[in-house]
Amino acid sequence: MTDNEKTNVGEEEEIQNPDEEINETDSELHKIMYGGEYSEYGEDLGAGEEEEPPKMKLSTFGKTKKADTEKKTKTESSKKITLIIVISAVIAAAVLLVAIFAPGWFKTTVEQPPELYYDEALSGSKRVLMFGQIPREQIQSIEVHNSYGDYTAYYNAEHGAFCFLGLEGTPYNEELFSQLVVAAGFPIISDRFLPGEERAPLEDYGLGENDDKAYYIITTRKTDDNPAKSYKIYIGKPSLTEKYYYCMVDGRDIVYILEQSIKDTLLADVKSLLTPILTYPIEDNSYLTNISHIIILKNGELFARIGYQDAEANVPGVEQYGVTVPYVVTQPVEYDASTQKMTSLLGQIVNMTGSELLEYNIYDVVKLKDENGDPVLNEKGEEEYDYVMKPEIAEKYGLAKPAHDVYYTYRSKTEGDMDVMVSISEKQHGEDGSEYYYVASMLFDTIARMEASSLSFLDWPLMDYLDKPVFSVNIDKVSRIKIETADKAYDFELTGTGDDLVAVESANGRTVFKGDDKEVGTNHGIRNFRKFYQTILSVNREDFVEEPADSERALLLTLEVTFRDKSVRTYKFYSYSERRCFMTINDKGEFYVLRSMIRKLVSDADKLLSYVAVDPNADN
């Protein structure tokens, strides 16, 4: 290769791809003038008008074409800059025209607050209120008149809480009451018709002079700095959606559209606000031991009287009898009350809450007078009063002669003894198959509907109130057990308690049962005796039975139990039929027991004395 050829080849290598240099220059220009997102439009905005010379020309006239290329690049850049200046000038002219002919486009719009009239106010969101918000802590009373009647909720300073006038003791739904406070004290509106504006006659809004309008009066509390203030608001017809209501404030000629929903508060029956609790509410389990006595009447006649077994009736220093709920039925029979049934009964009567409140203010207070027409006085010389249900209400709910009456006394630690009474109608049957009662509460002066499932004790026979075992007394309360039949006798004396309990059978040679049965098969420890005691506890009353004549009785077995408080119970079992025995307790009897239990009692006594393991659950 000649030197001239080498030179030409070098020059060819130097300029064989001149676009690389141009593109690099264009790339920087694009970045400066257009940025990355517009770089794809470079060919349209600049040069590109001349065709690229063929490769052959570049090889032959290398230096000359390089100079032409540099000139071309400057020309293209100049055109692009010129185009940008022109576009900028057009935009500037457009902005100037807008500024001259539409200056409002460059101003920030500030919404002016609406004009207020009388005692109107603005909420925090600049909405109009018929009057300034009255928070709960500033409300003295809310008096309501609507289609259901009148009621007044007021703040009772003595109790530090809101009450309903005439229903001071009646509890209410706190959530619904809070909604009432907001509806009455935060009257935000969606629109108003001002005086002089075109509007329909007031009658069209239900606010005419002769319209039977609902209204409420809200009064603030008086303080040292501010006197009490009241607003009376008339409520007219609802809007088409019944979400808003037309209203007027007494003394103003403005029709407001009240935005707050008032259908379920200011226009509702007060009964929907009150909670249909019928007996004194007890939150803990103290009712299991703090109800001193219960009386249940059926059709005005005594059905059952149940008393609490006080601690004073037991031996000093020893816990109460071993029943979980220490109650006894005292009338018409006298037996231990069923633990299971008493727990259920107490739970039902202290938690009487209706499913619907039906009436309130149901009792009239009348003075009691004696046969001479003179007032009856109490021990303090004060006139005695009584509560008499209003005749029309008693007739309406079948309570003129209640099917059931329940009385009890709750010994409250804070309120003292509280007498509670409810009267209950016959069971009602709804068209939908539901069963319920009407229950009147003297404590809360109300009548409510209660589902029958919540008062199941009203269907119990007397037998269900009684403890089925002959007795259910802890063995540590017993000092002596004697069993006698026509040809056998057993006499056990008990001393000690707990692990130190000792039983001695003296009628058959002073057999002693104490300690633990450590040796298999001995069965002479106190454990086997406790098994025998369980057999005694398993003797159950089965049902009431007519008492047989003395001539028809044949004594089968006598069980005499002496307690450590020196009291004695004597149980006698007489032949009554092939399967049953008539039983008496202290010579009084209404029940029968199964003869098989009497036979097992004797059989287990024999096993005990023979050191044979006793199984109280076995049939014999």
Brief account:
23% of the residues lie in helices and 29% in strands.
Strands, helices and their partners?
Blueprint: H1 3-15, H2 19-33, H3 42-45, H4 55-60, H5 62-101, E1 121-122, E2 128-129, E3 139-146, E4 149-156, E5 161-164, H6 174-185, E6 189-193, E7 214-220, E8 230-238, E9 245-249, E10 255-258, H7 287-290, E11 291-298, E12 301-308, E13 327-331, E14 335-336, H8 339-349, E15 356-360, E16 363-367, E17 385-389, H9 391-396, E18 404-412, E19 416-424, E20 428-429, E21 435-441, E22 446-451, H10 462-465, E23 478-484, E24 489-495, E25 502-505, E26 511-513, H11 526-537, E27 543-544, E28 555-563, E29 568-575, E30 580-585, E31 588-594, H12 595-609
Antiparallel strand pairs: 1-2, 3-4, 3-7, 4-5, 6-10, 7-8, 8-9, 9-10, 11-12, 11-18, 12-13, 13-14, 15-22, 16-17, 18-19, 19-21, 20-21, 21-22, 23-24, 23-28, 24-25, 25-26, 27-31, 28-29, 29-30, 30-31
Computed CA radius of gyration, to the nearest angstrom: 49 Å
Overall average pLDDT: 81
* Helix/strand class: alpha+beta
- Fraction of residues in H or I helices: 10-25%
Shape: elongated
Low-confidence runs: 1-67, 312-323
**Assembly state:** single chain
Largest sheet: 10 strands, antiparallel
N- to C-terminal distance: 134 Å
Q: How much of the sequence is in beta strands?
A: 25-35%
Number of helices: 12
Structural domain tally: 4
Query: Could you tell me the number of beta strands?
Result: 31
Short key terms for the protein model shown above:
620 residues, 29% strand, 31 strands, single chain, 10-stranded antiparallel sheet, elongated
